[in-house]
Predict the 3D structure of the following.
Amino acid sequence: MNEKAGKQSIRFGEPPYIIGSAAVAGPKEIDGPMAKYFDRVSEDATFGKDSWEEGESEMVRQAVNMAIQKSGIEKEEIRYIFAGDLLGQIIASTFGIKDMSIPTFGLYGACSTCGEALSLSAMTIAAGYADNVIAEASSHYGSAEKQFRFPLEYGNQRPLSATWTVTGSGAFVVSNRESEVCIKGVTTGKIVDYGVKDSMNMGACMAPAAADVIYQHLQDFGIKPTYYDRIITGDLGKVGKTILTDLLAMNNIDISGNHMDCGIEIFDNDEQDTHSGGSGCGCSATVLAGYILKMVASGEWKRVLFVPTGAMLSTVSFNEGQTIPGIAHAVMIEHHEKGKDV
Amino acid sequence: MNEKAGKQSIRFGEPPYIIGSAAVAGPKEIDGPMAKYFDRVSEDATFGKDSWEEGESEMVRQAVNMAIQKSGIEKEEIRYIFAGDLLGQIIASTFGIKDMSIPTFGLYGACSTCGEALSLSAMTIAAGYADNVIAEASSHYGSAEKQFRFPLEYGNQRPLSATWTVTGSGAFVVSNRESEVCIKGVTTGKIVDYGVKDSMNMGACMAPAAADVIYQHLQDFGIKPTYYDRIITGDLGKVGKTILTDLLAMNNIDISGNHMDCGIEIFDNDEQDTHSGGSGCGCSATVLAGYILKMVASGEWKRVLFVPTGAMLSTVSFNEGQTIPGIAHAVMIEHHEKGKDV
């Protein structure tokens, strides 16, 4: 039986599985330490298309199709798709999936979208509403910088607190068919606003939301951080990581020994001049699809808490003097011995 | 038992109920025929704030708080909120609900968002993941025109196919507590693209998606259009209504006798110079919260199919020469005699 756990979590009775995943990324990511785990990396930032936006959609298309292919099921067996990206009106997702003829739930959770999509996918499967669904999220350095900050041609200086939006898409087939990776539960985050107004310091905007959802997750399930091999945030970067561990330490929760941040892992930040780290929906989505799931499937990691983090930045609200609130969603991903009861 | 129905629908075993709703709207809506059903209308388009965007957030805040109040439950009993709007990075929703401390799923389905939010809310309640959740959607004429078309000060001429974005927010408390209105099932729409590229003719962009989801809904549940007292689309307007009825007629489905469109009902289109009709997430959301639910609760209408319709318009994709695909989601809303089995 599925059950409500604590204040804002769900524990699944029969945990859904991730039976296929794919990571597609761009030219900057090729030189990063994660590239070898990705299914496809492209030297061409437009992925053979005419614009960054169309390129991002092409990346979405490739990731979804590859995830389905790797899962071994047919596209016709996919009942729903939960997808989103950073662009206004989520055009990267829309144009990426529009010809697939799959009922669609469009999502916006900024860079936490991968967590939101996986949560709703797992909830849908565990409730018996579908046998197979897709969760997908993407971002693109070119389309995101153009929308949120400066034209790339302007070549603005980036402070050391800035992160670099990952060009990448991660797609996942969530299913009731058994595999080595299951989703045991989810904790849905609240919007948390500490009043930060610096669009070049996304880590500081998101860290309070990450701390809030991790704290609540541990409370709701009555577990300690050491329950997990890794607690993995999305794209806090170096600045956000420090704030997160400090905030949790103030609540007597120590994650310093097993915390990992996808934004810190995806680039060689000193060599690649990416400053605080990588960011964007595609950051946590590709690192999960490419690297983390392999570690869990092999059993090297038995349990991870995956916590994509989002900053609700908009140029409109930002220019009108508003803050940048954060949100984060936590997904309990665990190794599963095939044939064993969960 | 909840069950999958046909290709893209869900039939709920124990249908969730709508136990509270509220509609808040703006100055143009005051002169429309629906105004008398709304909970609050404001002469001030900024709702006492400094900008249209902040005004839209204020409208969201008021609608959500009023819906909770009318439902008779406490805010602390709300487990999740499903919300979205038309603005980039859904800032109207984010800033409207950020201080409520409720776990949040941000959605983007263009003007179909109310249907998407109600679908996910009903799925969440019927699965036992929560006792009470909120579904909410909003739009604002000022913030939407500024984002999607021309500055209002420019005073551009609007063709007769154009619709007028509704300034309004509708909020709903979906619950497992009995009320006179229940949600029997949902049909989730696919993105449908007929290649329309006219941003001043949203009706034509959305009608194929509405036809697709209505057709599939009737197939999935094995029912005829006459099962419903009304089949109610979101904001097709006069142009879209004609296309919808024609498209369905080509498939031998006649909805001409019981079709209604919120966009046609919300304004006195001839008197108010709103041309094809009203549009925006707030159009279907306020007409549902204010008018339709009263008709269903009283039993005047026993069954309605509520089908908010969205056009995936973005200035970026539009200016890059892309089409404007549509999406629509169908929600089966029925009168419930308290105390009777459903």
Notes: Chain A touches chain B through 60 residues (CB under 8 Å). Chain A is about 35% helix and 25% strand. The radius of gyration of chain A is 18 Å. Residues 295 and 301 of chain A are 6 Å apart (CA to CA).
